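Here is the promised in-class demo. Please do not try to memorize the tokens; focus on the logic of going from shape to residues.
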């Protein structure tokens, strides 16, 4: 997950000499939000493992994981339309 987000950040910065389109801007923000969702997934899973509101945080971590994987899919899909 983190490898994909770092790689997409390198790709978007390598092509910064051209004018940014609205698709580039949306892709950038989806990438950043996906990274934050993944970090929130790891945090809630760790808190659930530690026993802090175990059932509720377990469900939240699953929902965050699904959302972060969907955002990674959108980021990878946007590479097809960027070039």
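The designed amino acids, position by position:
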């Amino acid at each position: 997950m983190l490898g994909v987000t770092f790689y997409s950040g390198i790709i978007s910065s390598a092509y910064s000499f051209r004018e940014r389109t609205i698709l580039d801007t949306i892709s950038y923000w989806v990438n950043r939000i996906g990274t934050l969702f993944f970090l929130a997934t790891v945090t809630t899973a760790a808190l659930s493992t530690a026993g802090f509101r175990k059932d509720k945080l377990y469900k939240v971590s699953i929902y965050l994981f699904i959302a972060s994987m969907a955002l990674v899919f959108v980021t990878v899909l946007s590479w097809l339309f960027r070039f």
